[in-house]
């Protein structure tokens, strides 16, 4: 099964025509905080809503509580973001989930975006690392642990970036505009502005976590 | 001396009233690529312009070359972003620089933003780590190496975040809404949504690099 998670980032950074095309996105929806309120407004009933809803009014919270089969209002939430809390419930309620597309996780506050990027490094979320996808108007972000991979070029994206989030060993980029041969990285770095040369692209590495971004201007 | 660097990120993410108030920002300006073209349009003559200017037309490039005392057009630029290239020239031409405010380094392409965040970890830019400041509409970002520090609350910002970009030892947050006592972190993490309790805030750590973000919704 596939799930979609809407968190509370700025609407202006959501993918182009997101609201008008939301019904066509496959899979059930989960709303984190303000994301749950927005999903209801846009005609989507989340299967799960999680958050302290401190930015919503009473009517909105009541609507979320009534509409969602499972609504976790005002959870005990120390040291965890709304996104992480929603993912924690997703892991608990849908252990068989195959893919989680995350929307609304970027834009405006960069401390929140970085929390939404670095959460994959927490041992608690290791089961999700290869399954989550962060999508906004200009970027599609996926995460990889050591291994050999083939990427498929997204039609609307021009650039490709390999971003070690930890120390990484023996990164090899085989068939991109800029290639690499078993290079080590000791600290986080963004190898940005690379490009596909064909429809697919191959890379491999031995140790660490890499985030791959396909993006456009 | 202080310098300001404008790089080519989206104008919509620049600080509020940036263009109308740009003349009041103290210090000389450096323009990276499209940033140099914009500075000229906004009535600022950069002391230094660097970039391959692949997004500018001939007239714009000629204007930059004519207006700037030092214009580095089409430099040899492998494995380095426009921001990094500009900072490399800043280090070379202004070794005595005390502060570099960077604008236009955020928004839209997240691989570019992450390159503009992680560059401080490259040994080449170590001399700048405590001197650069990345500023946009919602965030002010500074970088710290091991030590004891006092932060001053920015009037317009509500949130405070401590973001280890590397493994960090013994992070202590003394007088924030959420405190910590000598905690270690093994990988990058964003400790977001903390807040000042007074006008200043104190923190210390033993090893690693931390980025501190003051932000607002």
TrEMBL record, chains A, B:
Its EC number is 2.7.6.2. It is an enzyme of class 2 (transferase). This is Thiamine diphosphokinase. The keyword Repressor does not apply. Keywords: ATP-binding, Kinase, Nucleotide-binding, Transferase. Signal peptide: none annotated. It comes from the Bacteria. Residues 147-210 form the Thiamin pyrophosphokinase thiamin-binding domain. It comes from Ligilactobacillus ceti DSM 22408. PANTHER family: THIAMINE PYROPHOSPHOKINASE. Gene3D superfamilies: Thiamin pyrophosphokinase, catalytic domain. GO terms for molecular function: ATP binding; kinase activity; thiamine binding; thiamine diphosphokinase activity. InterPro entries: Thi_PPkinase (IPR006282), Thiamin_PyroPKinase_B1-bd (IPR007373), TPK (IPR053149), TPK_catalytic (IPR007371), TPK_catalytic_sf (IPR036759). One of its GO terms (biological process) is thiamine metabolic process.
């Amino acid at each position: 099964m596939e799930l979609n998670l809407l968190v509370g980032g700025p609407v202006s950074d959501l993918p182009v025509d997101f609201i008008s095309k939301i019904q066509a996105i496959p899979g059930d929806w989960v709303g984190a905080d303000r994301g749950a309120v927005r999903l209801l407004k846009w005609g989507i009933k989340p299967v799960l809503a999680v958050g302290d809803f401190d930015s919503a009014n009473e009517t909105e919270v009541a609507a979320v509580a009534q509409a969602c089969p499972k609504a976790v209002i005002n959870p005990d939430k120390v040291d965890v973001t709304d996104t992480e809390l929603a993912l924690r419930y997703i892991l608990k309620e849908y252990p068989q989930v195959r893919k989680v597309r995350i929307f609304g996780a970027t834009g405006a506050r960069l401390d929140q975006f970085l929390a939404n990027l670095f959460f994959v490094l927490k041992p608690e979320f290791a089961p999700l690392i290869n399954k989550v996808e962060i999508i906004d108007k200009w970027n599609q972000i996926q995460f990889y642990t050591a291994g050999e991979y083939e990427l498929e070029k997204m039609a609307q994206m021009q650039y490709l970036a390999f971003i070690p989030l930890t120390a990484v060993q023996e990164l090899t980029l085989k068939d991109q505009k800029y290639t690499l041969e078993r290079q080590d990285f000791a600290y986080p770095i963004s190898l940005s502005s690379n490009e596909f040369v064909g429809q697919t692209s191959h890379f491999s590495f031995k140790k660490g976590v890499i985030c791959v971004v396909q993006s456009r201007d």
